[in-house]
Amino acid sequence: MAKIDSMSSMLKIKKSLRSVKILLVEDDALIYSLIKDVLEVMGFSNITYCKTGESAIEEIRVNSFDLILCDWKLSGISGLEFTKKLREIEDSKRYAPIIMITGKSREADVKEARDAGVTEYMIKPFKVNALCEKIKYILEKPRNFVIAGSYIGPDRRRKDNPEAIPNGIDRREG
Amino acid sequence: MSEQKKAQIIEQKSSFNEKMGNVKFDEVFDKTTLHKAESIVLKKESEFKNATKEDYENLLKAIEKFNRKENLFKGDYEELTEIILRIKSRAETGGFGLVTLVAKSLFEFCETASQKTPIDGRKVIRLHMASFEQIFSGLFDEKNHEKAEKLVAGLNAIVAANFKG
Questions:
Q1: In a domain, B59, yes or no
Q2: Where are the domains of chain A?
Q3: CA separation for the pair A119, A68 (Å, rounded)
Q4: Which of B92, B137, B149, B161 is 20 to 30 A from B33, comparing alpha carbons?
Q5: Right CATH for A2-168 from 3.40.1110.10, 3.40.50.1010, 3.40.50.2300, 3.30.457.10
Q6: pLDDT for the residue B11
């Protein structure tokens, strides 16, 4: 009986994973293909691809996404500008968690991304365990959403979870 | 006097959390799944290796152009950042872990030099390019971690020294 329960719960989880709509914004086809394949192996199959921030905004106008993975350096508007535009949409679409995946790794970069409204920050080269870590934070430690004059995005205070920013660079005030 | 809006704090779960429910990460992704995901990265190694070599060829061309310039301006360093960032992002997946570290050092140098004039930018670039050359030609034993660490520390120190004062 316990085995049946466990199988049924696993099937339910697999169904949930398949229902999660992911938007991947990345202009490097090689990295896009790597991330997409990894996400598919993890059970996510509903993945939409956009090469630019502009096309991602267009896509968001007609569709909703549950999770967004976005590169910083894109041709046209940057991943940061895309993030700000998404957070400004007066709709529940703005709450989607954004994982920024970028080669930029300075503390100032992380702060800039945080201030733009990024939820999690991940440094390239791409690593499966880093992606898992970020998904784990989003799943297990959801944060409140803040709408203030100069900032719209997830609550930047993360007292309980200081290691959430890569390389221990989280030195934000809280 | 302008009216200042109060910050709103919205306690909500994103649709991602709603769809997944109150599950823990380990309940969703078991070790086998994560192992399969890791194997995808390994399968892509040769693609990334070839792409990194191609990126390096493009960097060589960009550096050739850079070296022909009589006077260097901040924008000249900025022009190099995109290709260096691509090398940093791809090389390790292609099996060139040390290339990623050298590219990281060079990227940070060029990014800073695009805002603040370095003491001797040509020398910094020359040293980084010489390191790349040694690695790609197999003259540098990447498995010698101590030597690799020294190389990266040396490059980082040269970068830092260029912006002192």
A1: yes
A2: 2-168
A3: 10
A4: B92
A5: 3.40.50.2300
A6: 87
**What are the CA-CA distances from residue A148 to residues A10, A80, A88, A113, B2 (Å)?**
40, 18, 11, 17, 15
Domain presence at residue B5? no
pLDDT higher than threshold 70 for residue A25: yes
Residues of chain B with pLDDT under 70: 1-5, 165
Pair of tokens at residue A12: 């339910």
Q: Biggest alpha carbon distance in chain A?
A: 56
pTM for this predicted structure: 0.90
Q: B154: phi > 0 → left, psi -120 to 50 → alpha, else beta; which?
A: alpha
User: Does residue A102 have a pLDDT over 50?
Assistant: yes
Please indicate whether, in this complex, the C-beta atoms of B9 and A145 are within 8 angstroms of each other: yes
Q: Which residue in B6, B40, B48 has the most chain A C-beta atoms within 10 A of its own C-beta, making it the best mutation to test that interface?
A: B40
Is residue A136 within 8 angstroms of chain B, CB to CB? yes
Per-residue pLDDT band for A131 (boundaries 50, 70, 90) equals: very high
Our CA-based measurement puts residue B160 at a distance from the nearest CA of chain A, in whole angstroms, of 14
Is A164 a residue whose pLDDT tops 80? no
Residue A159, pLDDT score: 52
How far is the C-alpha of A104 from the C-alpha of A113, rounded, in Å?
Answer: 10
ipTM of the modeled complex: 0.90
Query: Nearest by CB to A30, which of B29, B48, B88?
Result: B48
Q: Give residue B164's pLDDT.
A: 82
- Residue A77: pLDDT over 90: yes
Distance between CA atoms of residues A155 and B163, nearest Å: 35
Helix, strand, coil share (%) of chain B residues, nearest 5: 70, 0, 25
